[in-house]
Amino acid sequence: MAKDEEPSLEDRIARLRLPRNDEVFGVVEKALGSGHMKVRCEDGNTRICRIPGKMQKRVWIREDDVVIVDPWQVQSDEKGDIVYRYNQTQLGWLRKEGIWEE
Q: Boundaries of each S1-like domain copy (predicted)?
């Protein structure tokens, strides 16, 4: 790629975590305690999601945060795991690129 060329959308997206396979975007509605959150997902379902142990102490998730949810194999419309949380800078970028709309 030459200096004056602008990187393609795929190149710019490659640096940011996006939903893979069955994962969906979601917005945290309510903290339920014990590492569980009520999340309104982009596919229209409201799921009770848990924060896995590897994220629990490292990432603080609050209400109105945008997250990626991985639905469970069983009860996939009701439960899932939160696998990633976007910060405000990343969320602004997703809005600018047209990937995320409130």
A: 14-87
Q: How far apart are CA 9 and CA 16, in angstroms?
A: 11
Element containing residue 62 per DSSP (H, E): none
Question: Does residue 79 lie within any of the structural domains?
Answer: yes
Residue 88 lies in a domain: yes
How many C-alpha atoms does 95 have within 13 Å on its Cβ side?
Answer: 10
Cα separation, 42 vs 39, in Å, equals 10
- Tens-place pLDDT, residues 12-52: 555 788 999 999 999 999 999 899 999 999 999 999 999 99
Q: Which CATH number fits the domain that encloses residue 43?
A: 2.40.50.140
Cβ pair 70, 22 in contact under 8 A: yes
Distance of CA 28 to the CA centre of its chain: 10
Is pTM, for the whole model, over 0.85?
no
Task: Measure the CA–CA gap between 68 and 84, rounded to whole angstroms.
Answer: 5
Q: Residues in the chain, how many? A: 102
Question: Is residue 11 included in any domain, yes or no?
Answer: no
